[in-house]
Amino acid sequence: MIIVVGGGPAGMMAAIRAGYSNREIILIDKNFYLGRKLLLTGGGRCNLTNTCSTEELIGHFSKTGNFLRDAFKAFASKELLSFFEERGLKFKVEKNGCVFTIDNKASSVRDILANELKKLNVKILFNQEVQKLLIDKEKKVVLGAALTSGNAVLGEHVILATGGVSYKETGSTGDGIRMAEEIGHKIVPLRPGLSALNVEENYPKLLEGLSFEKARLTFTALNKKIFSKEGTLLFTGTGISGPATLALSAKIADALAEDKKIKLQIDFLPDMDFNTAEKYLIRAFNNAKRKNVKNILKSFVPERLADTILELSNIFHGKDSNIITVEERKKILSFLKNFTFSISKDVPFDKAQITRGGVSIKDIDPKTMESKKIKGLYFAGEMIDIDAECGGFNLQGAFSTGFLAGKSAATN
Ligand SMILES: Cc1cc2nc3c(=O)[nH]c(=O)nc-3n(C[C@H](O)[C@H](O)[C@H](O)COP(=O)(O)OP(=O)(O)OC[C@H]3O[C@@H](n4cnc5c(N)ncnc54)[C@H](O)[C@@H]3O)c2cc1C
């Protein structure tokens, strides 16, 4: 019997691949349904993989990406897309090679996996939580899994695919990482990845929900630029989010962990240098005759940002543009080109899409995903110390490691 713990993308793919061997497979998940986090991916559209080459795929992972070479050799994006295509999924390739379902529904991906499990007669235990692994400590062999209900499931192979610790409401609460540690595996400290960032100031509350298709984010420490990126920016109630923020969040979290004080400067007009933006503003103020300053600013930025800028600059919203002083204009300009926030120390796990850290790759055989410490135990997905940028890479990592773990368990 092969026991798979976790019904996310990694666990489902592991159970499917193992299921092709005609072995008895049991999949256990603590939720009432499969792929709870998968349904949230890509804003509900599921960016399931990326069309880039395997070498590029590895490059999109952080330092531990090389560990995935064998998993990608066994099952990379080409094989993943064939798997889904053969089972009726239609998909489209968007910007930067990101692959989405054509119907924009993550549920289409989940349903194909669930149907395949059914077809293969994989037994699924829903609403059952694995509490600990049963191990023969002397022989260092896995014997099965003990459930919180008091029951146990016995099997000669266990694949742990319980995910990380972000979005805990989806069931990913780090149980597998804890269980792996309890039986001697090294755990690389868990940190949030692809996360929104909080700021110390209160104004994001006024800007919550505003999104900017193109803004430049520049992060500084001790007045020195450390990271900078242009992209879509979204204000949350407590800070910022959006692709550019998520992409830089891991580096920011690491810098904060080194006790650096980090400032963020937002340039809302990244296509104009400071002088051009100033000329634009002067022309707009002069040409507008007796228009009030807020109405002019609204042609540059959304109304709520215009209000906030005027508030922070101490300028009356209804003031005529032709009596704005040079000093006031410079203040407005500095908010448009260089709106500064202090990044708060806590990078929120509850807003992180992924978990960095997890079971150390040093304790896992990359050719099989089997533990180097306990025979018959395999790992797959986000609970391993692997993490990547946005772009479908994390799901591909989960599917590939799941596939290899399932294949190895079925053939060992
Ligand atoms: C909002 C959001 C959007 C995302 N969008 C994308 C995207 O578009 N593209 C992309 O590549 N990645 C995306 N990701 C990341 C991606 O979802 C994860 O990397 C992926 O789901 C990891 O798969 P997994 O199977 O390892 O773990 P999970 O998907 O976390 O699955 C783990 C499963 O294990 C179960 N489990 C946990 N503990 C136990 C236990 N003790 N007993 C029984 N069952 C247990 C859980 O209930 C859960 O179902 C996104 C993540 C989030 C949060």
Automatic annotation (TrEMBL):
Residues 191-354 form the RsdA/BaiN/AoA(So)-like insert domain. Pfam families: HI0933_like, HI0933_like_1st. Its cofactor is FAD. Gene3D superfamilies: FAD/NAD(P)-binding domain, HI0933 insert domain-like, Translation factors. The keyword Flavoprotein applies. It comes from the Bacteria. The keyword Thylakoid does not apply. Keywords: FAD, Flavoprotein. Residues 2-407 form the RsdA/BaiN/AoA(So)-like Rossmann fold-like domain. NCBIfam families: aminoacetone oxidase family FAD-binding enzyme. PANTHER family: OS12G0638800 PROTEIN. This is Flavoprotein, family. It comes from Candidatus Omnitrophus magneticus. The lineage of its organism: Bacteria, Pseudomonadati, Candidatus Omnitrophota, Candidatus Omnitrophus.
